[in-house]
Design a protein that fits this description.
The complex is a heterodimer of chains A (396) and B (551). Chain A has helices spanning 8-14, 37-45, 65-72, 120-125, 151-158, 203-214, 224-233, 277-286, 299-308, and strands at residues 19-23, 26-31, 47-51, 56-61, 85-91, 97-107, 110-115, 133-136, 141-147, 171-175, 180-184, 193-199, 219-221, 290-297, 324-327, 333-343, 348-356, 365-372, 375-384. With 396 residues, chain A is an alpha+beta fold. Chain A folds into three domains: 8-55 and 138-222, Probable tRNA modification gtpase trme, domain 1 (Gyrase A, domain 2, 2-Layer Sandwich); 57-137 and 257-286, 2-Layer Sandwich (Alpha-Beta Plaits); 290-393, Aminomethyltransferase beta-barrel domains (Elongation Factor Tu (Ef-tu), domain 3, Beta Barrel), CATH 2.40.30.110. Chain A has a six-stranded mixed sheet with strand order 10-11-12-9-3-13. Chain A has a six-stranded antiparallel β-barrel with strand order 14-17-16-15-18-19. Helices cover 35% and strands 19% of the residues of chain B. Chain B has three domains: 9-104 and 262-346 and 490-548, FAD/NAD(P)-binding domain (3-Layer(bba) Sandwich), CATH 3.50.50.60; 128-257, no CATH class; 348-484, Guanine Nucleotide Dissociation Inhibitor, domain 2 (2-Layer Sandwich), CATH 3.30.519. Chain B has helices at 9-14, 36-47, 88-93, 125-133, 137-161, 173-188, 191-202, 205-212, 216-223, 240-243, 266-278, 321-329, 336-344, 384-395, 443-459, 465-468, 477-484, 536-548; strands spanning 16-17, 27-32, 52-55, 67-71, 74-77, 103-105, 108-112, 118-122, 250-251, 254-255, 259-261, 282-285, 289-295, 298-304, 309-317, 351-358, 377-380, 404-408, 423-430, 469-475, 520-522. The model of chain B is unreliable at 1-8 (pLDDT under 50). In chain B, a hairpin with a 5-residue loop joins strand 7 and strand 8 (118-122). Chain B is built from 18 helices and 21 strands. In chain B, strands 1, 2, 3, 12, 13, 14, 15 and 21 form an eight-stranded mixed sheet that branches. In chain B, strands 8-7-17-18-19-16-20 form a seven-stranded mixed sheet, with helices on both faces. A two-stranded antiparallel ribbon of chain B has the order 4-5. Classes of the chains: A alpha+beta (396), B alpha/beta (551). Chain A binds chain B through residues 33-35, 37-38, 41, 44-46, 149-150, 153, 215-218, 299, 303, 312-315, 342, 344-349, and chain B through 88, 91-92, 96-97, 101-105, 107, 123-124, 127, 151, 155, 252-255, 262, 372, 375, 412-416, 420-421.
């Protein structure tokens, strides 16, 4: 039975559609209205306000914090400066992905880490020999993501931090309307955006304060359906959809390495030992079996399949996440597309897929299964560079 | 117009002023007019490797699909204000999203009523059914059936707007095959829809809707789709066909209704211009063409207002047929019969535009407060009689005392077009006949009164509207002609009435973008399939030109 987040009194009052789902044991809004379209447009034209409290959050403190995180993550956390946020992944000792998240260096000896899955025990069990403490603050910190082109204008109005100087993936503490908050310039929409972290007790004040500051800037409460389209446009991978945590996999074939899911850039190989290092070094030398790619699904072919049934073309309004096979030109299966969406902003039918490495070069023409009028067929899908959508304002 | 104009910053990113960068050399094609169709035609020709120059008289590109900062901080879609029929394959071919093309769907059609009631039709079908049921339970259930029938007929009509007009007079077997295919598809429509289609081609919008619905409240806003941009009333025969246009729109691959362009409709033109420039088109603004340079019966280039001559193998005109032939070519170069037909081609502008900069969102008495009902289009048209009466006044040379007004407030959806908390309100107004009884040139003396009439009308629904107006821009049909080159202020480059469509647009025999003048082509809304932000005339013209081998 899911429990409410600290924002529930506000989100539930606005969620007229009653469309909720469970996210890490919390009630989370899929879309506030029957259709997520307006919420999507808020992310891309104004600002969407999204409750991301269900993320798991850990405080890692102590002199050995950076060394410890460098040991458990594939990234060298010692290189992350105070005031910086870094996107990270971590693996088991065979180099297989356990989870991905962020670390925020609040002080020399203090990091905050986020994870999609409960990770306390794993951190705790690897802590031996390091001068650190790990505390699970998942239930103590409430978080809102404010994402979209007007998010900076809203936050500038709402807090005392100098946001013009807060770069991409940077963090600052600030004071809002009588309470303290931490801002990170991060998010899951691939756009200009921030996440704001407060004590649970200040959650409702934060919600009201941001809504008030945003009312002239096109702010809208937004749910996970809208987020899902934006994250696909941004080419971001999602645990339990596009890949699975090694600890949950019954078979080896389900597991992936960071290189295989497009997170190779979060791996700093040549340094002191870290968990999974040997396996990842070997993979780096040998090459990876799989690659995570973006697919652009051919519209004309899809339209023709509909026309053959005397139907107008149609694409689902929401993002999909039921995996379908991906084939080479000879219809041999070379992988699977795990999620996708029609991108309203790019006017493209997009998918994220895991394919055999030799089929992953941009420009490669593959085929993706598609079902039209109950008939399974396939259309061309071209491998393209990710992110699909990457506006200048994201980093500006 | 009561106002100043914009700093056209976006235009400067893709175009140079004529005087600063005079074109050089000889071109394959010169496109006259930088409206969206001209830009699209130019882009397609350049894509085929042709050397193309595009000349725009104004300082800003877009023609009637233009965004201007009329009042500091407020960006107005000055003329055309919504988009629906823009062809999806053009968006793909020219990769317009890369150049800033974004459309935000309108989710609601809101109808405030004078008695304090209101009707809102939503994207959510169940919600719409409940709304309509307050007026007629029967209509609430017929409404989706009507939508389905219209969609099926729109699908029948779609290939007609995506290909050159059929040529019924032709003896070419391929042409006949085309026409037979239309017949075949007609046959496949099924008996019910065949009957409906024939009715649509002949009936008035009012009569057609009467066959389906009983609630006058519902029929009011539905009927006006049949008369937009025409000098006809909802009871004029032939207006039913135009209803279909409302169901032909495609956004994101699905047949559906209407949207705003992010940044105003000018952003669509700027995306087309961005694509055109990227493909190698030279674009010059403040470049007024005075004449088409003729040699015998052949166009050889253009003569600029300052006397410069620029030569090209062909000239493509994006301006309307009257202005093209009577203005740029000159009657002396036309044969008498053709000149007569062009003179007979009907413009009869019937609409105006009032653009307001507002201090806050307009508070409608019938549904107070901000809400999603304001985020679509808002129609002031309480009944079909209301529109017909409005037309009665126009018939005898007056603007309507209580006109049909179609309002949109894009700043509620796209915060980039107004300062925080402020809004742009675009009001399309019909009827405002070009031919007022004093004569069109007297519009400047009537303009203020026209603007006041519109605000008086809105005030009946939004009592404090006057106190919230920071700035007002009023465009009469005469202004549309003078400032935007739209003959008689017709927003579609000539009425979209049946006798001026397809193989008769703009005239019989010359509906395929060619003209009686050699090497002169049409690519604007005065050519098939007509007006609106559709892009089809521009694209189809380019294909016809490239196929002809003229360049």
């Amino acid at each position: 039975m899911p429990v409410p987040t600290p924002f529930h009194p506000r989100t539930s009052a606005l969620c007229t559609s009653y469309r909720w789902k469970q996210w890490s044991g919390y009630h989370a809004v899929c879309s506030y209205e029957t259709c997520h379209e307006r919420e999507y447009n808020a992310f891309r034209q104004g600002a969407g306000l999204l409750d991301v409290t269900p993320l798991f959050k850990y405080e890692v403190r102590g002199k050995g914090a950076a060394d410890f995180l460098s040991h458990v993550l594939t990234k060298d956390a010692r290189k992350v400066k105070v005031g910086q946020v870094s996107y990270v992944s971590w693996t088991d000792d065979k180099g297989k992905m356990l989870d991905d998240g962020t670390i925020t260096r609040i002080a020399d000896d203090h990091f905050r880490m986020t994870a999609a899955l409960p990770t306390y025990y794993w951190l705790e069990k690897n802590r031996r020999g390091y001068d650190v403490t790990v505390s699970d603050v998942s239930d103590q910190i409430a978080t809102l993501a404010l994402q979209g082109p007007t998010s900076r204008a809203i936050l500038k109005k709402a807090c005392d931090a100098d946001l013009d100087k807060l770069g991409f993936f940077k963090t600052t503490a600030c004071r809002m309307d009588g309470f303290e908050a931490r801002i990170t310039r991060t998010g899951y929409t691939g756009d200009l955006g921030y996440e704001v972290w407060v004590k649970n007790a200040d959650a409702l004040k934060l919600w009201d304060h941001l809504m008030d500051a945003g009312k002239d800037h096109g702010i809208e409460a937004a749910g996970l359906d809208a987020l899902d389209i934006t994250r696909i446009e941004a080419g971001f991978i999602l645990l339990d959809v596009d890949y699975f945590s090694a600890k949950d996999c019954l078979i080896e074939a389900r597991k992936s390495t960071p290189y295989e899911i497009g997170l190779g850039w979060t791996v700093n190989l040549d340094r002191e030992p870290f968990i999974g290092q040997a396996a990842l070094k070997a993979e780096k030398a040998k090459g990876s079996k799989w690659a995570f790619v973006g697919l652009d699904i051919d519209w004309l072919e899809l339209e023709a399949l509909y026309l053959a049934q005397d139907l107008p073309p149609s694409v689902p309004g929401a993002a999909w996440r039921t995996a379908v096979p991906v084939f080479d030109q000879d219809m041999g299966q070379v992988g699977q597309a795990t999620s996708g969406a029609w991108s309203p902003i790019l006017k493209k039918n997009l998918a994220l897929a895991t394919v055999l490495n030799e089929h992953s070069k941009p420009g490669t023409k593959l085929r993706i299964e598609t079902t039209v009028e109950f008939k399974r067929q396939s259309v061309t899908a071209t491998v393209v560079e990710k992110p699909f959508f990457n506006p200048e304002r994201k980093r500006a | 117009m009561t106002t100043t104009t914009a700093v056209p910053l976006v235009t400067e990113q893709v175009a140079s002023k004529y005087k600063d960068a005079k074109p050089t050399g000889e071109y394959d094609a010169i496109v006259v007019g930088g409206g969206h169709n001209g830009l699209i035609c130019a882009a397609y020709m350049a894509k085929a490797g042709k050397k193309v120059l595009l000349l725009e008289r104004r300082h800003v590109l877009g023609g009637a699909a233009v965004t201007e900062e009329v009042f500091p901080g407020f960006k107005f879609s000055v003329c055309s204000y919504v988009v629906s029929l823009f062809r999806p394959h053009i968006i793909r071919d020219l990769e317009l999203p890369k150049f800033g093309y974004q459309v935000l769907p309108l989710d609601c059609s809101f109808l405030p009523l004078p008695n304090g009631d209101s009707l809102a039709r939503w994207g959510d079908g169940e919600r719409t059914r409940r709304e309509i049921a307050r007026f007629s339970k029967k209509d609430s259930e017929v409404y989706p059936e009507f939508g389905k029938a219209m969609m099926q007929m729109a699908r029948f009509a779609k290939p007609l707007i995506d290909s050159p007009a059929p040529a019924p007079e032709s003896l070419n077997p391929l042409e006949l095959l085309d026409i037979l295919q239309v017949g075949e598809r007609f046959k496949n429509l099924g008996k019910d829809n065949q009957t409906r289609l024939v009715k649509m081609m002949t009936m008035s919008a009012a009569d057609f809707l009467d066959e389906w619905f009983e609630s006058d409240t519902l029929k009011g806003p539905m009927s006006v789709s049949g008369i937009i941009g025409t000098f006809q009333g909802v009871r004029s025969p032939g207006t039913a066909y135009v209803l279909l246009h409302h169901y032909m729109g495609e956004i994101d691959g699905a047949f559906r209704s209407w949207g705003f362009a992010k940044g105003g409709t000018g952003a669509i033109s700027m995306a087309c211009a961005g694509a055109a420039k990227h493909l190698g088109v030279e674009i010059r603004t403040e470049a007024a063409v005075a004449k088409i340079l003729m040699k015998g019966n052949s166009a050889r280039g253009v003569v600029m207002a300052n006397g410069d001559e620029i030569r090209a193998k062909i000239v493509v005109s994006g301006v309307d047929p009257r202005l093209t032939f009577m203005g740029l070519v000159g009657e002396e170069h036309l044969d008498g019969e053709f000149a007569t037909q062009i003179k007979r081609y009907k413009f009869r502008g019937s609409s105006g535009k009032v653009n307001l900069a507002l201090d806050r969102f307009p508070n409608f008495t019938c549904r107070p407060g901000d809400g999603n009902h304001l985020r679509g289009d808002i129609a002031i048209v309480p009944s079909m009689d209301y529109v017909e009466k409005a037309f009665d006044e126009a018939k005898y040379g007056d603007f309507s005392r209580r006109p049909y007004i179609n309002i949109v407030i894009p700043s509620l959806t796209d915060p980039s077009v107004a300062p925080p908390g402020k809004h742009v309100m675009s009001c399309f107004v019909q009827y405002a006949p070009y031919n007022i009884k004093e004569g069109p040139s007297h519009w400047p003396q009537r303009r203020e009164a026209f603007g006041e009439t519109v605000i008086d009308t809105i005030e009946e629904y939004v009592p404090n509207i006057r106190q919230t107006i920071l700035h007002k821009q009023v465009l009469s049909p005469w202004d549309l002609e003078k400032d935007f080159g739209l003959t008689e202020g017709n927003i579609f480059h000539g009425e979209l009435s049946l006798e001026q469509l397809a193989f008769q647009r703009p005239t019989a025999k010359w509906s395929r973008y060619r003209t009686p003048v050699d090497n002169l082509y049409l690519c604007g809304s005065g050519a098939h399939p007509g007006g609106g932000i559709m892009g089809a005339p521009g694209e189809l013209a380019s294909k016809e030109i490239l196929k002809s081998g003229a360049i």
